[in-house]
Amino acid sequence: MNAKSSIQTKSRHEQLGLSNAEVIEMYKYMVLARKFDERNMLLQRAGKINFHVSGIGQETAQVAAAFALNRQRDYFLPYYRDYGLVLSAGMSLTELMLSAFAKADDPNSGGRQMPGHFGSKRLRIVTGSSPVTTQVPHAVGVALAAKMKKQDIVSFVTFGEGSSNQGDFHEGLNFAGVQKLPVIFMCENNQYAISVPVKKQLGGRVCDRAQGYGFPGIRVDGNDAFEVYRVVKEARERAVRGEGPTLIEAMMYRLSPHSTSDNDLAYRTKEEVDENWKKDGIPKLKAYLVEAGLWSEEQNEELFKEINQQLKEAVEAADNAPFPRPEDTLLHVYASEGEGL
Fold first, then answer.
1. Cα separation of 140 and 161, whole Å?
2. Is 4 exposed, middle or buried (0-12, 13-18, 19+ CB in 10 A)?
3. CB under 8 Å to 313, separation ≥6 — which residues?
């Protein structure tokens, strides 16, 4: 068999350099993120937590992108729906639940921030702020530092399509383009900026804006794990070669309400949501694994049981953990004696 025919016989994930174990792990993280999200929706409705902002429908692109990066060295600047990304980067269910329950041991902020505001020095997840798009110039700053230190790493930042209309987006992209910085911008275009549909937000495509700043912009199906993996992997290779940034627009759909404070059927129809459930990337990847002989319904049932048990333990640990002390409100506001500026 010649080399060409040998490549043609490879499975889709093998052509991309993914092993059987890696593609199965990708699927497991997607399911883990989905189940975490669903459990938090229930916890909020039951009055156990105050608030949850959902990422259901966006996990496929998040996990695929994480696997295309160097999860031991690269820097992550996620936005508030990125449970799939931060779980893939190494955050645990218990850590995320501590944040959801606003407990003192929350590693993201000590219970000071709303859920979905991720931060971990250990995992190189840079703390985000509530104002949207502020993470974009921060990611550019991280990339500038990497270039100055001649480190072969990238910063990876995500945001919604609504954020692409903010000044921080344009300033960040312009600076990254001028300096040819190793940063990957990924817009998770989920079709809605809270209640505003994309047709009322954008006069064109987000990815096309990269042209004005001198680097490639790529639109990709965010429900196709392998396509997202491919374009992020290629963007990373470009970045570490010194060829500069890439803007990726991953097309997807927010299947859940904007948050637990949102009635999404006030601005869209149930029929529209139901139609988009058919495009969900998680069952698509599961079907691929089953067809490839790498997965079975029995394994799927066992995975669900394992995750449910992990969630049960994480919820119990977070629920029983202590709240921050009232006086902790004053921590990290002003420099303490001996801390310096």
1. 18
2. exposed
3. 94
119-161 pLDDT, tens per residue? Answer: 999 999 999 888 999 999 999 999 999 999 999 999 999 999 9
Q: Which amino acid is at 73?
A: R
- A 10 A CB-CB count for 201 gives 17
Phi, psi of 338 (to 5 degrees): 90, -10
Average pLDDT, the chain: 95
Token couple for 317: 């640990």
pTM check: above 0.85: yes
Residues 165 and 202: beta-carbon distance below 8 Å: yes
Enzyme catalytic residues: 254, 258, 267
Q: Is the pLDDT of residue 3 over 90?
A: no
Model pLDDT for residues 104-121, shown as the tens digit of each residue: 999 999 998 888 999 999
Mean pLDDT comparison of 92-101, 112-121, 128-137, 324-333, highest-scoring range: 92-101
